[in-house]
Amino acid sequence: MFHVLLALAGDDLHGYAILKEVELRTDGEVKLSTGTLYGIIKRLLNDGLIIERRERPPSTTTSAADITANAASREVAAAEAARLEKL
User: Fold this and answer.
1) Alpha carbon distance 64, 53 (integer Å)
2) I need a labelling partner for 44 at 20 to 30 A (CA). Which of 33, 36, 38, 63 fits?
3) Coil, strand or helix: which one is 78?
4) 51: three-class secondary structure by DSSP
5) Where does residue 84 fall: left (phi above 0), alpha (psi -120 to 50 degrees), or beta otherwise?
6) How far apart are CA 6 and CA 17, in angstroms?
7) How far apart are CA 25 and CA 58, in angstroms?
8) What is the DSSP letter of 40?
9) What is the DSSP string of 4-32?
10) CB-neighbour burial class of residue 87 (10 A; exposed 0-12, middle 13-18, buried 19+)
11) Percent of the chain topping pLDDT 90
12) 3-state SS of 51-65?
C-alpha cells in the first residue's frame, strides 16, 4: 500500500502506470501483480484515501480510469515514511 501511495503522490495514474512507477521507484525490487494492485486499490478506495476519476481529457485515448491521491493519503504516506525512517 505504501508504494502505491508513493506512486500516486505526484500524478494521477492508471493501474498499469502504478505498477511501472512502483517498479521504477524500487529499482525493480517490488513488482506488484495486477491482482495485488487492484486489491490494494480497492482497499484504499474503501478507506477514502484515493479517488477513482472516470472523466478524461479529450486528448487522452485510453479508457482506463485514473487513480488520484488525496490529502489524507499523502498524510498516511508521510507518516509511514517517518515510521520506516525511525526503524
Assistant:
1) 9
2) 63
3) helix
4) strand
5) alpha
6) 13
7) 29
8) H
9) HHHHTTTS-B-HHHHHHHHHHHTTTS---
10) exposed
11) 52
12) EEECCCCCCCCCCCC
For the chain, give the longest Cα–Cα distance. 46
Q: Give residue 59's pLDDT band: very low, low, confident or very high (50, 70, 90).
A: low
C-alpha cell at 78: 508521510
In contact, 42 and 78? CB cutoff 8 Å: no
Q: Helix axis angle, 15-25 relative to 34-46, nearest 10°?
A: 100
Question: What is the three-class DSSP state of 67?
Answer: strand
In the three-class reduction of DSSP (H, G, I as helix; E, B as strand; rest coil), residue 68 is classed as: strand
Q: Look at residue 65 and give its three-state secondary structure.
A: coil
Q: What's the pLDDT score for residue 77? A: 87
Which set of grid coordinates corresponds to residue 18?
502504478
